[in-house]
Amino acid sequence: MNAIALAAIGLFIFALGYRFYSKFVAEKIFRLDPNYVTPAHKFKDGVDFVPTNKFVLWGHHFTSVAGAAPILGPAIAVYWGWLPAVLWVVLGTVFAAGVHDFGTLVLSVRNKGQSVGTLAHRLIGQRGKVLFLFIILILVLMVNAVFAWVIANLFISFPASVIPVFIQIPLAVWIGYAVYKRNTKMLVPSLIALAVMYGAAIFSSQYEFLQIDLVRYMGGEEGAGLFGLGAISTAFFIWIIVLMIYVYIASTLPVWKLLQPRDFINSHQLIVGLGILYLGLLFTNPEITAPMTNTVTDVSWFPLLFITIACGAISGFHGLVSSGTSSKQLDKETDARFVGYLGAVGEGILALISIIAVITFFPNREAFLATYSSFAASSGSGLGSFIQGASQLATGLMIPSAIAATIVSVIVVSFAATTLDTSVRLMRYIISELGVEYNIPSLEKKHVATTIAVVASAALVLIPEGPNGFGSGGYLLWPLFGTSNQLLAGISLLLISIWLRQLGRSYVITIVPMIFLMFMTLWAMFQQVFLQWAWYAAAPNMLLFVFGAIIFVFALWIIITAIQVLASKDNSKLLGNEKIE
Fold first, then answer.
1. How far apart are CA 60 and CA 56, in angstroms?
2. Hey, what long-range contacts does 170-173 have (CB within 8 A, 24 or more apart)?
3. Using CA atoms, how far apart are residues 468 and 339, in angstroms rounded to an integer?
4. Which residues form the CstA N-terminal domain (predicted)?
5. Share of the chain above pLDDT 70, in %
6. pTM of the full predicted structure?
């Protein structure tokens, strides 16, 4: 199939989904009320609860969920061929991710801006509280570690991206003060900031002295580095420490000072980036050289495809963002459709171009198969293949390849950083909720909870274990990420289903994707935990086995609970005698 035709079909289906399906869900199922007083107004505090323009909030929400994952997952999943990856991205976005992100946002807004974790506690009862929080903490901890790992490695591989990324921070702070203290409109300052960033990217890619190359400063790849770690490991360690300091500050500041303006800049950056890639696709009209389907012998695509592509099709982390930060900033309830569903569509559009960039990058089928020779090989080369493929598309707009690679890496790092500090903020919320639940006042303090989140994340990413030695700890629990992520999405859809049932409304739109996700997640977990698929290929890892077994048992328990709840005539008994509104 022609690459342009493939993109056009995908975009057309996304447009139909937002125009018709999301409108049906908003009006007939969720029945949004424009006069409902949202938590942003009811509990306005200027820190977390801040009424926000829907375009600004969409920028925050979109860039928080659209990190590196909707790029990395699809770039890996094309190992099984581009057709199954495209189908899951397009159909999963329209019928699963859109409803999930939209629904968790509305459910949280209708319940004082509480996180999906808190609402799930009320659903599954006292016995499941600790275990569910354990799963959420593990998920956000893995997000923190893996995204920090990705950013640090991109800074090492693309040193020209460092200055453009860091220059965004003071620009965002300036915009925050201009908008909220001087009532300046955010659009023009954000576009100026974006122009400054890309100007810095162009100059950095052309002039070596503007490239913050820590490896070169320590004598190159063969350099001794610090404490005998070697130049690359030392550079990685330094970047992780810098990132942890940054996320500590970013996740404790009021959202209007850095989070919102930076995310608004990134939303424009994403639009510009997508525009460059899709226009580049139009002008270059590249040939799809990857196979439509790829017969492999090492790893079956079913069910792993639906776990490998989480963000970009459906992701439980999105529910944490929707109910953790976005619900506290929603100005009007009717804005939820624009923020939640369209945010999911935006991520689907990003995942689609990620697939196209990879499957058109290679000169022929043989070159693709040589790089994607195994699932392990595709996991290691996916992100690099996307950056190179995206740069190749950008050259269709007469952008030099070095500049294009720098701009693409800046985009990827910016999104990963957005997700990283949002995830740390969410982890702080969860730790504070534990403090309230178990009467531990110290955990309720913002800086104590943030310190725990940051130290735990740094410790995980720096654990000197795994196949690549020092600094590979970010992937220590990676096999659990996809399964626990999709399990959270299934639980969120379950919550929405129960809420809709209580209100006497149809919940088919949520129960069907919930059953599908639970089935795929349990199947994948069974393979990974009890058949020891892939986990023991290199060396036994008891940590993965124990955590995976616990999550597997919990997933079974959730399904049993779901049957009980949906079959019950009095749902309030299963909600801690406190009925969800």
1. 6
2. 171/196, 171/197, 171/265, 172/258, 172/261, 172/262, 172/265, 173/257, 173/258, 173/261
3. 39
4. 2-363, 377-524
5. 88
6. 0.86
Q: Name the DSSP class of 20.
A: I
Which carries the bigger pLDDT value, residue 47 or residue 420?
Answer: 420
Nearest-angstrom CA–CA distance, 264 and 288:
34
Are 360 and 2 spatial neighbours (Cβ–Cβ below 8 Å)? no
- Report whether pLDDT(581) > 50: no
Are 462 and 240 contacting, i.e. CB atoms less than 8 angstroms apart?
yes
The tens digit of pLDDT for each residue in 344-371 reads 999 999 999 999 999 999 999 999 999 9
Q: What contacts 489, CB < 8 A, 6 or more positions away? A: 96, 100, 310, 314, 315, 316, 318, 319, 517
What is the SS3 assignment for 332? Answer: coil
Cis peptide before 303 (omega within 30 of 0): yes
Give the number of other CB atoms < 10 A from CB of residue 548: 23
The residues near 242 (Cβ < 8 Å, ≥ 6 apart) are none
pLDDT in tens, 287-312: 999 999 998 877 888 888 998 898 89
Token pair 């990856």 is at which residue?
85
CA dihedral 267, 243, 466, 523 (to 10 degrees): -30
